[in-house]
Amino acid sequence: MGNLGLAYYSQGQYEQAIAHHQQTLTIAREIGDRQSEGKALGNLGLAYYSQGQYEQAIAHHQQHLTIAKEIGDRQGEGNGLCGLGNAYHSQGQYEQAIAHHQQTLTIAREIGDRRGEGDALGSLGLAYYTQGQYEQAIAHYQQRLTIAREIGDRQGEGIALGNWGETQIKLEQYPDALENTNAALAIFREIGDRAAEAEALKNLAELHQKLGEAEVARGYCEQALALATGLGIPLVEECQQLKALLEEPEE
Questions:
Q1: Disulfide-capable partner of 56 in 48, 82, 210, 247 (CB 3.0 to 4.6 Å)?
Q2: Predicted local distance difference test score (pLDDT) of residue 10
Q3: Closest of 246, 188, 193 to residue 217, by C-alpha
Q4: Which CATH architecture group holds 174-251?
Q5: Average pLDDT over the chain, rounded to whole?
């Protein structure tokens, strides 16, 4: 049941994912399986986060964190802290986010969780990016990329490349941004991560807009909007704003 929930989540079918994780949660509580209860709460937190329901996400990640600490599940503790950090980030509470991700990074390194270490570095990069500390952000993305390639984490590799490319757009490093964003898009399509694919398409639209290639930008924007709309993710609003901007008549 839990694995089905994860499969639906990876396809962007968040309502289906939530339904399965809730069933998992019910069963885990009935049989007193605390670790599975914590995992189900964490997975629900991820699904609510992806739908933009950040208060719901925080509530579930906090419950996961509490259980993980009670049963001595260090990896679960790290995952709970990571989920909370991401939710706080989305609410604009960046110092809170950084504090949680630093704790996640410490735990991941203590227990030798390389994937968790990479995820924490990527999340820290995002927090620095949002605060306009682009060089700090890139340093963290590069570390994440190195780890992802070492352990064969294709999704992590794609996310690191995508985030690095997005930061390069801010720094007006357009050729490098184009290379990294296209590489990220190829990976997301290969592994079927549709939400990340939509994000990469939106970034390519912004990049081609910066390059003065309005028609190409509109094409990418339309693809991103259609995908984000189908998935029902918060990216829809950003795509709509970009589309409106691209449709304004040139002076």
A1: 48
A2: 85
A3: 246
A4: Alpha Horseshoe (1.25)
A5: 95
Residue 251, pLDDT > 60, answer no
* Residues comprising the chain, all counted: 251
Residue 88 tokens read as 């706080």
H-helix segments, 11-73: 14-31, 34-50, 54-71
Task: Compute the half-sphere exposure of residue 198: CA atoms within 13 Å on the CB side of its CA.
Answer: 22
CB atoms within 10 A of CB 173: 17
Half-sphere exposure for 189 (CA within 13 Å, toward CB):
10
3-state secondary structure at position 22:
helix
Of 116, 179, 186, 192, give the one whose Cα is nearest residue 148. 116
- To which CATH superfamily is domain 1-72 assigned? Tetratricopeptide repeat domain (1.25.40.10)
Above 80 in pLDDT, residue 21? yes
Amino acid making up residue 171? L
**Sequence ranges of the domains in the chain:** 1-72, 174-251
Report the first-to-last Cα separation within the chain, whole angstroms.
Answer: 56
- Take residue 163 and report the two structure tokens written for it: 């985030």
CA atoms of 182 and 176, how far apart (whole Å)? 10
Q: Hey, is 175 helix, strand or coil?
A: helix
DSSP 60-100: HHHHHHHHHHHHT-HHHHHHHHHHHHHHHHHTT-HHHHHHH
pLDDT tens digits for 198-239?
999 999 999 999 999 999 999 999 999 999 999 888 899 999
With tokens 């989540």, the residue in question is: 9
pTM: 0.80
Cα distance between residue 225 and residue 146, in whole Å: 31
Longest dimension (CA), the chain: 67
